[in-house]
Specification:
By secondary structure, the protein is mainly alpha-helical. It has a domain of 48 residues. The chain has seven helices and four strands. The chain is elongated and about 65 Å long. It is found in: Nucleus.
Length: 170
């Protein structure tokens, strides 16, 4: 892996973050701070030293050896004489990455969320007398608090309790 650091100090594998930026736009997937491929830098040397000393179990069938991350590529190249397909692929070569929900059309959003919608509806009918809006607002409130967005959560809570937006005229 080729680790890189964003301007917002999050760490990613270069290949993965570039795929993510290409699909989701120029934002950090962790915090949504603007992030461009040209902004990616090599992390500080101390981090790289720690990373290189981490032990990794070899993913090749019938090889249970543990190797330091720094020597992983060299160790894996020793398995190249094995037939194709016998070696576990350590790079994700699957299909295209999933698009972010907000970048989809409304129809595609509904399609992707249909199972969640069904579960929310069932929960609302069982626990809240069918009040889907209250369940969704509560889920949103919990999501805001989980991301430390307490000011927005307080405003939403005030709206939910009928106290308005919590904003007062000057």
């Amino acid at each position: 892996a080729d680790p890189v650091e964003t301007t917002c100090r999050h760490l990613f594998c270069r290949t993965c973050i570039l795929k993510c930026i290409r699909v989701m736009g120029s934002y950090c997937p962790s915090c949504w701070y603007p992030c461009f491929p040209t902004d990616l830098v090599t992390p500080v040397k101390s981090f790289l030293n720690i990373l290189d000393n981490l032990s990794i179990r070899c993913p090749v069938k019938e090889c249970d050896e543990e190797i330091s991350h720094g020597k992983y590529g060299q160790h894996l190249s020793g398995h190249k004489e094995m037939k194709e397909g016998e070696v576990y692929s350590y790079i994700n070569k699957g299909g295209r990455p999933r698009q972010h929900l907000l970048s989809l059309t409304r129809r595609a959003q509904k399609h992707r969320l249909r199972e969640l919608k069904r579960q929310v509806k069932a929960f609302a009918e069982k626990e809240e007398g069918g009040d889907i809006k209250a369940v969704c607002m509560t889920l949103f409130l919990l999501a805001l608090r989980a991301k430390n967005e307490h000011k927005q959560a307080d405003e939403l809570e005030a709206i939910m309790q009928g106290r308005g937006s919590g904003l007062h005229p000057a």
